[in-house]
Write a structure and sequence with these properties.
391 residues, two-stranded antiparallel sheet, 12 strands
């Protein structure tokens, strides 16, 4: 059993154990009857439920670059693939300035830097090729301090190191730059999951950056952390909300619990779609194709494999939905994912050698003659698109 399998197995065990014990830490949750009414204290209008998400941007139908849109998926350490692809895209000379950038989970960590453009490529490189597991999480519970923290806590690891990394990625200067781009009409969105409500929440990161509040950077960091907080493995992130003058807390976890990547909202490109000028790019940080495996008869491999299959099915659903929306709106749909022939080699959850390999692979694909895919590779008999792995 490799490190990834052990980590997921422990997360599954922790969830089961906590369910069995029925114990939990104290909190002040939003009343069920008002679950949709909370407003972030001091930051009205910076987030939406999924049904409300429809970016307030204006398109110039004469300029295709004005409606280029990038969506970045989750994928953990495989975000190194997306980081490498983005930097290779810069090197190819064809990377546009995106009108809208969205991110979920590891995609939420990449999104602000992708939004700010090639000037932040060096940070992308460093953030995804020089880190290891200890730079993302502190392992507790079963692997460090006994079984009690797992049974009676919120997670088996803490995200203190990840929070420090996020603070390094987006500092005060970057926040100011995001606010400037927001004023120009560009938009940056990050998705989290409100676990109490069982609904995705879309955060307008440019609105947060432009709020003028002294705690804007703190909230910006919290949203990024929440989007990347895998439940069971990492603790949830709590947001203080207010309803009728009373304060409560909302529990938010990884946006990938509900969707691994999200789209551009209803009829966003209506002004330009008749011309067929808009381009929609999706970077899938992982494999979209099936990954066959012979599963051992044991509770952990069966649980892990089932969880991975559930996430794979979610990826198919996400991509089919986005492809359908683009086709409906006459938008040029493009995506990239780890191809069928790629085999991971690292044992560590965030293995620096494997992440560097993923980064280089993404870079090499981006600088190739035809990097983008158009059709979702579901249930095809032949695996036509097989890249030679980077060595």
């Amino acid at each position: 059993m490799n490190k990834k399998t052990r980590v997921i197995s422990i997360a599954v065990f922790a969830a089961l154990a906590i369910t069995i014990t029925g114990c939990g830490l104290p909190r002040n949750p939003v009343p069920i009857a008002r679950i949709s009414d909370g407003s972030v204290v001091g930051f009205p209008g910076v987030r939406y439920w999924e049904v409300q998400y429809n970016p307030d941007v204006k398109m110039d139908s004469s300029d295709s670059a004005d409606c280029s849109f990038l969506a970045l998926s989750g994928g953990g350490a495989k975000g190194a693939f997306g980081a490498g692809f983005l930097n290779g895209w810069t090197a190819s000379g064809t990377r546009p300035e995106f009108k809208i950038v969205t991110g979920v989970s590891t995609g939420a960590l990449i999104a602000p830097l992708a939004f700010l453009g090639s000037e932040y490529d060096d940070k992308l490189t460093e953030g995804y090729t020089t880190i290891q597991t200890k730079d993302i999480l502190n392992v507790e519970g079963l692997l460090g301090f006994g079984i009690l923290p797992v049974l009676f806590g919120e997670s088996y690891a803490s995200t203190g190191p990840l929070a420090k990394m996020i603070a390094w990625q987006v500092d005060e200067e970057a926040l100011k730059e995001i606010a400037k781009e927001y004023a120009k009409g560009r938009r940056l969105y990050v998705g989290t999951t409100n676990l109490d409500a069982q609904r995705p929440v879309i955060w307008d990161m440019g609105a947060i950056a432009s709020s003028g509040r002294p705690d804007a950077l703190k909230l910006f960091h919290k949203v990024m952390l929440a989007s990347a907080s895998i439940p069971g493995g990492f603790p949830p992130v709590y947001f203080d909300v207010e309803i009728d003058g009373k304060k409560y807390d909302e529990m938010h976890v990884d946006g990938g619990v509900i969707t691994g990547v999200f789209g551009y909202g209803a009829n966003l490109f209506a002004e330009a779609q008749d011309e067929g000028l808009c381009s929609f790019y999706v970077i899938k940080n992982g494999k979209l194709d099936v990954e066959t495996e012979q599963v051992r008869r044991h509770v952990f491999p069966i649980s892990v494999r089932s969880f991975e299959t559930l996430m794979k099915a979610q990826s198919w659903s996400d991509m089919l939905r986005l492809h359908g929306h683009a086709e409906r709106d006459n938008v040029d749909f493009n995506y990239i994912s780890l191809p069928y022939g790629y085999e991971a080699k690292g044992d560590e959850m965030f293995d620096p050698e494997e992440m560097k390999r993923l980064y280089d692979f993404g870079y090499s694909i981006a600088t190739s003659d035809n990097p983008w895919q158009k059709e979702i590779p579901l249930f095809r008999k032949e695996r036509e698109w097989i890249w030679t792995p980077v060595r």
